[in-house]
Design brief:
Blueprint: E1 5-9, H1 16-29, E2 36-40, H2 46-53, E3 58-62, H3 79-85, E4 89-92, H4 95-100, H5 105-117, E5 121-126, H6 130-134, H7 138-149, E6 159-162, H8 176-194, H9 196-201, E7 204-206, H10 212-219, E8 226-229, H11 236-244
Helix pairs in contact: 1-2, 1-11, 5-7, 7-8, 10-11
Length: about 240
């Protein structure tokens, strides 16, 4: 039985003080949940976030990680730096990183390996653009991203987030049937790589404009194991409504 996992990707929002206050609210609003809850604030807020999460059921994630342990990589952060702060999860390969900052399937693979080596749980994002979906390339894109992004690593320790790029920040959402179709494709692809047993153990989140009014139906699909939440994660009540179902 796969434990549901709901992670909040705060993107470039919330100062350190705002982060601590929001986490306190989230802890109270999600008390008693059986869902794994993760918050992913900006790097600048991680220390305050770690203090706020201490002793609670809420886990701390970061929004990116570099593949090297250290070096001349201005503006980057290593897995060991994150781990020392109390981070347990890290988002890798988000569509905004791919679109704006040159992320590729190869760099996703390198970052994921670095995260695993440090004992972090990678949340690896995959998904197609509207153009790719409309041109019938959804399957091709998703299979490529899964296979290249997860080459030569311990797939069983990875969380995958399916993000239809056309549904991020647009207000559009894949129907439960569309989302399930993509999640099932991801799980079949994983089975080809590592076999059915491990594939069936991997949690796959939906990450395209999940909100309180559609979360229950989406997470009720057989291959959808939670959500990677954007805008709705910035308010405790909406985030908790998704977590609490």
């Amino acid at each position: 039985m796969r434990v549901k996992i709901v992670a909040g990707n705060w993107k470039m929002n919330k100062t350190a003080s705002e982060t601590a206050a929001l986490i306190d609210e989230i802890i109270k609003a999600t008390a008693g949940t059986h869902v794994e809850v993760v918050v992913c604030p900006p790097f600048t807020s991680l220390k305050d976030a770690a203090a706020a999460c201490t002793g609670s059921h809420v886990k701390l994630g970061a929004q990116n990680v570099h593949w090297e342990v250290s070096g001349a990589y201005t503006g980057e952060v290593s897995a060991e730096m994150l781990k020392e702060l109390g981070v347990t999860h890290v988002i890798i390969g988000h569509s905004e990183r791919r679109q704006y900052f040159g992320e590729t399937d190869e760099t996703v693979n390198k970052r994921t390996k670095a995260a695993l080596a440090a004992g972090l749980v990678p949340i690896v994002c995959v998904g197609e653009t509207l153009e790719e979906r409309d041109s019938g390339k959804m399957d091709e894109v998703i299979v490529r991203q899964v296979k290249l992004g997860l080459t030569d690593l311990d797939v069983g320790k990875v969380v995958i987030a399916y993000e239809p790029v056309w549904a991020i920040g647009t207000g559009r959402t894949a129907t439960p049937a569309q989302a399930q179709e993509a999640h099932a494709l991801i799980r079949r692809t994983l089975a080809e790589i590592v076999g059915g047993a491990i594939a069936n153990s991997v949690r796959i989140q939906y990450g395209g404009s999940m909100k309180p009014d559609n979360a229950k139906e989406l997470m009720g699909q057989p291959d959808i194991d939670g959500g990677l939440i954007g805008g709705a994660a910035l308010k405790a009540d909406s985030f908790a409504a998704i977590v609490n179902g």
